[in-house]
Amino acid sequence: MNQSYLIKPVMRDFYPTAMYGQGVFIYDKRGKKYLDGSSGAVTSSIGHAVPEIIEVIYEQAKKISFVYRSQFTTEPAEKLAEKLNQLVFGEEDEYFSFFVNSGSEATETALKIAIQYWQEKGNFRKNKVISRWSSYHGITMGALSMSGHIGRRERFVSLLERLPTISSPNCYRCPFNQKYPSCQLMCANELETAIRREGADNIAAFIAEPIVGAAGGVIVPPEGYYQMVREICNDHDILFIADEVMTGIGRTGKMFAMEHWGVKPDIIALGKGMSAGYTPMAATLASGKVMKPILAGSASVMSGHTYSANPQSAAVALAVINYIEKNDLVQKSEVSGNYLMNLLKEVAVKYPIIGDIRGKGLMIGVEFVSNILTKHPFQKELSLTSKLVETARDKGLLIYPATAGIEGGGGDAVIIAPPINITKQEVDLLVNLFEKMVDEIQEDLS
Ligand code: PLP
């Protein structure tokens, strides 16, 4: 068995060899069955081996799988762009799609479009992006420069752009030691302070994950946060980029997570659930406001990859979105998410190592603490997150590791985000396996 292509084994001893998937389940070479409780890396949002998608893959492959984006456009790419444009907050604005292959490329493209926007308007100084400390926007250097995920940054810090960062809106571990709503959203106001410190003339955009994923174990901001962020951006002439790579396309009970707050971003990055893992596909959507000076100026976005707008991937992403709409999965994500959340909360009361459970729709984070009253995290040396993930896997449940969003890094959290078409019985099984895992870990720790 040659696993030399693995760059970083997360599981210490080995990776099981996946043989096939069916719905929310994955089967390995030894015949072991896993409930995909995290959709991989919050990606396989409609489960595995959906016949309608397989059919589209086959039909598109028979027609054409690749053309170069500077030589041809294709019907799948055109239809996908049209579909995304319809989905973003109705049809009141026009969003332009730039198709790429990964979430990292989508956020890098967002960064470039934001800088280019200001250049086309004659402003060459506005080229910094403010981000939040507990955030992850991707692994490539531009995306990593905007990310606060310590573990993924530390080896490359000297090469990363030094961009301004602010705190995350983390009510469980408020960076300002305040309580909502008497805090008056100090976390949002910090954006204003950062803009004043850096000078609005130097800032192109603010980027945020609507709900922080891997770098915070699912941090949902308090009501009013994004409305205030949007206002601050408007007041200081700064673009707002929403990184919906993890939250987008139905995951949180809305097609786009920003709909929860009714706030329209200028640029949106998509990935993961957009093609639900059936093919690499991601996108950067830029609003009409952003595209206007670009189209009137150089008339092209200075970015792109060989595989950008690949027709095979575009056909699959379109089929995934149609499948989600046809089966009412955005609504189901909300309903199943509420059901799952309630069951997990019932588990949590029995286990003091569970400090917090939070989320929206089927994107749920569980944070583990050594002391439930002080919220003190477990020692880093314990590698508790890895133990949680491994123990769950042994029991046949896949969950996704995260850090807990403690400013400066650290803490233990996992993300539970099964395919959004998971059934009620499968949610029951998920919770049952999760409880068995927590039970064993709590026993080991005592
Ligand atoms: N943005 C967010 C919010 C993510 O969660 C991720 C990946 O986890 C990325 C960007 C990067 O996406 P990719 O791993 O596809 O490059």
Separation, N- and C-terminal Cα atoms: 38 Å
Which stretches are low in confidence, meaning pLDDT under 50 for 5 or more residues running?
A: none
Oligomeric state of the chains in view: single chain
Largest sheet: 7 strands, mixed
Strand order across the biggest sheet?
4-10-9-8-7-5-6
User: Which shape, going by the Cα principal axes?
Assistant: globular
Residue-averaged pLDDT, rounded? Answer: 94
* N to C succession of SSEs: EEEHHHEHEHHEHEHEEEHHHEEHEEH
Q: Which class do the helix and strand fractions yield? A: alpha/beta
Provide the helix percentage.
Answer: 25-40%
Organism: Halobacillus mangrovi
GO molecular function, one term: transaminase activity
Protein name: Aspartate aminotransferase family protein
Family: Belongs to the class-III pyridoxal-phosphate-dependent aminotransferase family.
